[in-house]
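User: New here, any thoughts?
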Amino acid sequence: MSNSLFPNDFETSHILKLHYFVPSERKLWTIIGKNNEYWVDPELDYCSCKHYYYKTLSGKEKCQHLKSFNELLKNNNYDKIKFSDDEYFNFLSMLIKDLLKV
């Protein structure tokens, strides 16, 4: 997992993270997998992992990240990380760069 999306002194305690931007209230979710961190969009039922492309899109089954998302959310088992809207573009750029490394 790349820590480039977090300040150096930030400690995470959960595998699911809500990146919350203020004042716009934009929300981006990421989840930590075995080797990488993935972008998850629960409204679109989307995950950036390879399993999503190979199995979920073909209708076989949801990826493990989407399967676990609702349970983690229901149990408040996630970190909420606040950012300023001024950081949104840079955050998105870093997220995309990390995703392209996968």
